[in-house]
Amino acid sequence: MIELHTWTTPNGRKISIALEELGLAYSVHPVNISKNEQFRPEFLAISPNNRIPAIVDPDGPGGKRLALFESGAILIYLADKTGKLLAREGAQRYAAIQWLMWQMAGFGPMLGQVHHFKRAAPEKVPYAIKRYFDEAKRLYGVLDKQLAGRDYILDAYSIADIACYPWAMRYDWQEIDLAEFPNVQRWMGTMGARPAVQRGMQVPKPPA
Ligand SMILES: N[C@@H](CCC(=O)N[C@@H](CS)C(=O)NCC(=O)O)C(=O)O
Predict the structure, then answer these.
(1) Listed residue (106, 115, 108, 191) closest to 147, CA to CA
(2) Which of 55, 85, 115 is the endpoint of a domain?
(3) Same domain, 138 and 101
(4) What is d(CA 99, CA 32) in angstroms, rounded to the nearest whole number?
(5) Contact criterion met (CB below 8 Å) for 73 and 79
(6) Nearest residue by C-alpha to atom 16 in ligand 1
(7) If you measure from the C-alpha of residue 33 to the centroid of ligand 1, how many angstroms do you get, rounded to a whole number?
(8) Nearest residue CA, atom 15 of ligand 1?
């Protein structure tokens, strides 16, 4: 059974959603990053960058154990393992990887900076708040344009949608007005109606 090492954050939830969508059996191993559990030696042995999520698949390529960190790499691995949520070849495969990279390099990190400077920074830094909030709005605009006239980011539901959704679900933390991005708003409704997405968003259970 695949081990999922994760926490209650957007990057972690990408993987629980994918595992739920793919119907793969998995066990959940919470890594409470607010208690610095990501620095425990046993977790660092799997994820040397001390970040969740990470997986261990005892039945990896060639039947051998595979440990993997970086949510984008994990999504590609799980999709390739099952032959679902990512075309095996052709233009749609590269389009999905393109949007996955867009999320990994832009939508996630920039929204993460918005979360930090709007909610967590010990001092108010107006320059940083404006810089990252403006960039967040630009990125929401790019996503909105891509979603015009489509149910999902590409022709079919893919790991690109799964990568973006948990970050967009924190729109209230980002103080993003979804009414300005009607295609994103519609897509979030479509995504949120999927039972596997609903289950994946509850993993791991928040601490009591
Ligand atoms: N690029 C990484 C980012 C992972 C990441 O930033 N994870 C955060 C939680 S969402 C984390 O583990 N933070 C712990 C820390 O900063 O020490 C991925 O997508 O997997």
Answers:
(1) 191
(2) 85
(3) yes
(4) 29
(5) no
(6) 51
(7) 9
(8) 51
- Would you say residue 200 lies in a domain? no
Query: 44 in a domain, yes or no?
Result: yes
- Which residue type is seen at 75? L
Q: Is 65 in the same domain as 111?
A: no
Quick check: is 202 in a domain?
Answer: no
Q: From the CB of 37, is ligand 1 less than 6 Å away?
A: no
Q: What are phi and psi of 142, to 5 degrees?
A: -65, -45
- Cα-to-centroid distance, 59 and ligand 1 (Å): 25
186 plus 114 within the same structural domain: yes
Q: Say how far apart CA 78 and CA 61 lie, in whole Å.
A: 11
pTM for the structure as a whole = 0.97
Quote the ligand 1 centre to 51 CA distance (angstroms): 4
**Which residues constitute the domain of residue 33?**
2-85
Q: Is the CB of 103 under 6 A from ligand 1?
A: no
Q: Whose CA is nearest to atom 5 of ligand 1?
A: 51
Q: What is the pLDDT of residues 149-203, one digit of tens each?
A: 999 999 999 999 999 999 999 999 999 999 999 999 999 999 999 999 999 999 9
Helices 71-82 and 159-168 cross at an angle (nearest 10°) of 140
- pLDDT, tens only, 9-21: 999 999 999 999 9
Helix (H) or strand (E) holding 186: helix 182-192
Do 109 and 59 belong to one domain?
no
| DSSP SS3 for 7 | coil
